[in-house]
Design a protein that fits this description.
Layout (H helix, E strand, L loop, with lengths): L4 E4 L5 H6 L5 H9 L4 H10 L14 H14 L2 E6 L3 H15 L4 E5 L12 H9 L2 E7 L6 H9 L3 E5 L13 E3 L15 H15 L10 H10 L7 H15 L3 H10 L8 H18 L3 H8 L3 H35 L6 E5 L7 H12 L3 E5 L4 E7 L6 H6 L7 E4 L3 E7 L3 H15 L8 E4 L1 E2 L9 H6 L13 E14 L5 E8 L2 E7 L12 E13 L2 E11 L5
Parallel strand pairs: 1-12, 2-3, 2-4, 4-5, 5-6, 7-8, 13-14, 16-18
Antiparallel strand pairs: 8-9, 9-11, 10-11, 14-15, 14-17, 15-16, 17-18
């Protein structure tokens, strides 16, 4: 009934259970599954406090970056913060502009237009900034592959400091500093940071040098937004940054975040990482996808409630239009890949695809078909594409092997962007498919669903939900716990949603009754038997002012591996 491979994780050894005094065995098992063993690790994970924070000077070139910014501050130079157009880049740009301004800097933001300029540094933008009197550019979430751009800027007397978290090429740009935790010579302590996290560490180092480090803490709301939105692992320092940032978002939200949340129908004061992923980040990203990301920048930067209300409304409208356009484009791209037959790597190409949603469509294809997917907007001379992959295939490494066919590329193992001469399209697809065939030849191409523990439903009663919430924030690297229960009786099962795409169930086991929902499984109603095995999360259902626990079903009755 489900294409997932169910994978019950190994049981925690008895010594782990014995050493964790005061914790329920189920919580110890969940911690063990995340590599948290022993009392010291457990206490630190649960506290998620500043002890998880690493020294900002452990990042490459931090000393050089701080020294050059101090020089600019003393000389009154004009500084430009050059951010990317997604939530990670936008939050990092706001953070640095506000943080540098508070130190007395003459600083301006610059965010490139997604469609007209593309990701990363570009020559025209740097020349424009130079003409505006800028002598120092500090990047956020971009720049580590901008070798030619930095070389030209340097010749023209423009200094560049790069803060990024993308994978560098073999050669680094000749910048004043390249602060990127993915550099081969980095110590690895911050390798999972988002771009906004790297920018925060730069600000932290600057303020520390002035004896004012405590003043950067109010910026952690921005760090939480960008970190969660960029889907980096919520472990190590990221866990601390997001936990503290969420506390700020809920206790004292800046006007832009508050207005977005209100207009999206969120519970202001109860916002969690999932709300950022599914509601706030898509709205912030919508501006750059549909028009220009500066609208999102202004929303997060403003202190005026009325301005925030107006900007949040604009972003809401843009997000609605983005959803409509994504659905239309996905339907067309899906037809394309189905018409081309089974392939180890999917590629959908069209002249009418809008550049701002290529990544969204590629991500939907990758999830549905569980294949690396590339969606390309074809131009007369030049084409641009966005790639999304699966855990078993490193897409940035693959397109790196095709760099002789490309104009520009960059990204991560699971998400990347590229541009290339349209004449190279067929050769590029052929080579990428060949690479995928070689690397995925013996891989079972079904997504794996990791299960934290097999339990009976009565185990989830009492304080279990409250105990699980102490492990938050949840996200990549610390997923919401998933449980398996066998031989569960189905008392009632019916479809819900306008097109019957979801299921609503009433379940019982050994006298315990539970409500449950199964999103996206509506078509499988005829296959639901009177007794089923289920994998699910435990969640709080808020409806019409009422709260109650329910099961969020992820899968029903496939084989367990």
């Amino acid at each position: 009934m489900n294409s997932y491979r169910w994978n019950v994780l190994p049981q925690a050894p008895s010594e782990s259970l014995a050493s964790a005094s005061g914790l329920a065995p189920l919580i110890v098992q969940i911690l063990y599954n995340r590599g948290i063993t022993g009392p010291a690790q457990t206490k630190l994970f649960l506290a998620a406090d500043e002890r998880l924070s690493v020294d900002p000077y452990s990042l490459p070139d931090m000393h050089q970056a701080v020294s050059r910014i101090y020089q600019a501050l003393l000389a009154g130079e004009r500084i430009a913060v050059y951010g990317d157009f997604d939530t990670d880049g936008i939050t990092g740009a706001v953070l640095l502009v506000q943080g540098l301004s508070a130190l007395g800097a003459d600083v301006i933001p610059y965010i490139p237009h997604r469609l007209n300029e593309g990701h990363g540094l570009n020559h025209a933008a740097l020349e424009y900034l130079r003409q505006q009197g800028v002598s120092l550019v500090v990047t956020v979430d971009c720049g580590v592959t901008g070798i030619s751009q930095v070389k030209r800027a340097k010749k023209q007397g423009l200094d560049v400091i790069i803060t990024d978290h993308h994978t560098p090429l073999d050669e680094l740009p000749p910048a004043v500093a390249v602060t990127d935790p993915k550099r081969s010579d980095a110590d690895g302590s911050s390798s999972g940071m988002a771009g906004v996290g790297v920018a925060f560490k730069l600000l932290q180092a600057l303020y520390r040098g002035m004896g004012r480090e405590e003043e950067v803490a109010p910026m952690l709301d921005l760090v939480a937004l960008g970190t969660v939105a960029d889907m980096v692992p919520l472990v190590g320092e990221n866990r601390y940054l997001v936990k503290r940032g969420l506390e700020l978002i809920n206790s004292a939200p800046r006007p832009g975040i508050k207005e977005m949340a209100i207009q999206a129908g969120l519970d202001v004061g109860g916002i969690d990482a999932e709300d950022i992923s599914w509601t706030l980040a898509p709205r912030l990203n919508a501006a750059g996808r549909m028009e220009h990301a500066m609208a999102s920048y202004r929303l997060l930067d403003t202190n005026l409630s009325e301005e925030a209300r107006q900007l949040a409304a604009v972003l809401g409208e843009q997000n609605t239009e983005r959803q409509r356009l994504t659905a239309e484009t996905l339907a067309k791209a899906r037809e394309q890949v189905l018409a081309r037959g089974d392939s180890i790597l999917l590629m959908a190409c069209d002249r009418d695809y809008q550049g701002g949603i290529l990544g969204l469509v590629a991500g939907r294809l990758a999830r549905e078909f569980y294949r690396p997917s590339i969606v390309v907007r074809v131009g007369d001379r030049s084409s641009v594409g966005s790639c999304r992959s699966i855990p078993e295939f490193d897409i940035i490494q693959a397109i790196g092997q095709c760099r002789h066919l490309l104009t520009q590329f960059g990204g991560h193992s699971q998400a990347a962007g590229l541009s290339f001469p349209t004449s190279n399209l067929a050769r590029l697809e052929h080579q990428l498919v060949k690479i995928a065939q070689e690397q995925l030849a013996d891989v079972d191409l079904r997504p794996r669903l990791d299960i934290d523990a097999e339990v009976v439903l009565r185990t989830l009663a009492g304080d279990t939900f409250r105990a699980i919430q102490k492990l938050a924030p949840f996200g990549k690297g610390n997923p919401l716990p998933a449980f398996l229960s066998r031989n569960v009786a189905v008392a009632d099962c019916r479809t819900m949603g306008g097109r019957g795409e979801h299921l609503r169930l009433k379940l019982k086991q050994d006298g315990t009754h539970w409500d449950a929902v199964a999103f996206g499984l509506g078509a499988r109603l005829p296959q639901v038997n009177s007794t089923v095995d289920i994998v699910y999360n435990l969640e709080l259902d808020k409806w019409s002012g009422q709260e109650g626990l329910r099961l969020n079903i992820l899968g029903i009755a496939p084989e367990v591996i």
